[in-house]
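Pipeline run #58 for the internal structure catalog. This entry was flagged by the ingest filter as a single-chain record with no existing model, so it goes straight to prediction. Upstream metadata was stripped on purpose; only the residue string is passed forward. Reviewer on rotation: M.T. Logging verbosity set to normal.
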Amino acid sequence: MNSRELPENFKKKMNELLGDETEAYLASFDEPSSQGLRVNTLRLSPQAFEQMALKEGWDLSPVLWAAGGYRYSGQLRPARHPWYYAGLYYLQEPSAMAPAAYLPVEPGDRVLDLCAAPGGKSTALAQKLSGRGILLSNDISASRARALLKNLELFGAENFCVSSETPEKLASVFPEYFDKILVDAPCSGEGMFRREPEMVKSYIERGPEYYIPVQRAILAEAVKMLRPGGMLLYSTCTFDRGENEENVLWLLEQFPALTVVPLEKKERMCDGVGISGPIRLFPHRIKGEGHFLCLFRLDKGAENRDLKSEERDAGQKGRAGKTGQEDAGRKADRGVLLPAMDFLKKIPRSWDPERFYLEKDRLYYLPENFSLGSGSSFKRVRYLRTGLFLGECVKGRFEPSQALAMNLKMNEWENCLSLSSADERTVRYLKGETLSLSPQEAEGGDGWRLVCTDGFPLGWGRGQRQMLKNKYYPGWRWQ
């Protein structure tokens, strides 16, 4: 997009904001936007991925504010590589990596990503949790939440739930529940004009004045869900002071128990305008698009909610004790779960029987201390997914899910078919085709086989003599 096509009122506002740097900002529209990917550390280390990428001739440079984040050249097409389908990385613009990178999530935390679709930030938060605690990823749009779900399952995440609810509804179910909350709020999108020129039309129709009350309503409900001592990160991809610093000041006024936590500036990041602590990213200063971040901490002694966190925890703990066993065990008496348990015994893990949850014939493995029993208020939420979807119990047999395949490591399943990413059968498998096997490959026998590329799972197949019947999830196929 050429800077001459920008709305005049926007250019005037940027001149007031940037002063002498305005020309440099406008000149950035003549430069290509940065392309980025973030390595899935649930799968492999950034160093291991660098070695793999080097052998493929990929030109990568690190994003300094996001561990495992890399920029890549415009000629590279990582979305058309089997590694993408193995969930080895997420394609994400470098500045968009900052919000999840700056929210200090620790394994075991209860984390909420309130405006989560399409899932880039949720996948990063899931990496930080490392399979412990819980991540609730929410988007008010059910269609966008489905894309969010796919990306979390493609990444092999397990301790998450995906919901499609309003912030108000979630706040009524989860008062003072979360240790960390990310609010990457809907905004006017000024920081993305270079990368997505079509956003200018939307900006003209709905500018900052439309989004500011929306953002404040979301933030107010988010704070209600934050535990005393917890942290909330607010981010936008806009430059507007009303959507950024003025919202920060408004929130501090509404909730005096909140304080701003100063964020470390890297590369040529800027401080907030008129307030110290937040971060601003400008495309003429860093290799990325425009973004704003501010981190808040809630005073540990805050008591401005309807229900104290201790009461909430005690009530849910009392309800959660036998949730999975009661719901799943009721049908296990009829033998429904026996094939599933036989299958899961082949995976060398210490499964917690209290976390199994059977709904209709679909078996889930719930996150730690998460209840869906009949007495739990958590059940009031509209979920698209609750934990790791293990598979379906159908007519006396167990059909493992695509999500389970992505959650496994190759060494956790004895009967694997390991293909090179350069093997033409890898793409054929991803397209849903039946594969021919060599006599040596067929020695794996009949039954469920985990299909892998370069040592990383892609999905399931069923061996039949020297053929592999394709069980790759149709909705994910290579197009």
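catalog note: Residues 213 and 294 are 18 Å apart (CA to CA).
catalog note: The first helix runs from residue 8 to 18.
status: ready for reviewer M.T.
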